[in-house]
Design goal:
The protein is mostly helical. The protein has helices at residues 4-46, 51-78, 82-106, 109-126.
Length: 127
């Protein structure tokens, strides 16, 4: 059974790394917020999601989040050795894979949303 003390220390190092990386990421995310607000306004005014605009937002989230994962991993790896280092590598690889899966699935959202909105709002205009 793994030594809980080593993983506890790894968790503390990870927490510090997350806080440092989050501070850097905050400015990137706030820049993307303007784009997200524009997409939200278009959604409420035009009742549609622009696929290209959505894809740009997804790319930005993907790039920023992958960078965050890498930054946290690098920071934790600076202080990890042996088994903890290998666990950190696996967790980082899994985090990248899960992120990619979720963002790939999200690419379906504009088509689904647009179909639902057309159905909802076109029916109201006809009646």
């Amino acid at each position: 059974m793994p030594d809980a003390g080593r993983f506890s220390e790894l968790g503390e190092q990870g927490s510090r790394a997350v806080m440092e990386a989050a501070a850097v990421l905050e400015s990137e995310l706030s820049a993307g917020l303007t784009e997200a607000k524009a997409a939200g306004e278009r959604l409420t005014s035009e009742h549609q999601v622009d696929q290209q605009e959505f894809d740009r937002l997804v790319r930005r989230v993907s790039e920023n989040t992958h960078q965050l994962i890498d930054a946290v991993t690098a920071r934790v790896m600076d202080n990890a050795a042996g088994e903890a280092s290998e666990h950190t590598r696996r967790i980082a690889a899994n985090a990248h894979d899960v992120l990619d899966l979720l963002l790939n699935l999200s690419s379906l959202a504009p088509a689904v949303a647009n179909r639902a909105m057309r159905s909802t709002f076109d029916d109201r205009q006809d009646g």
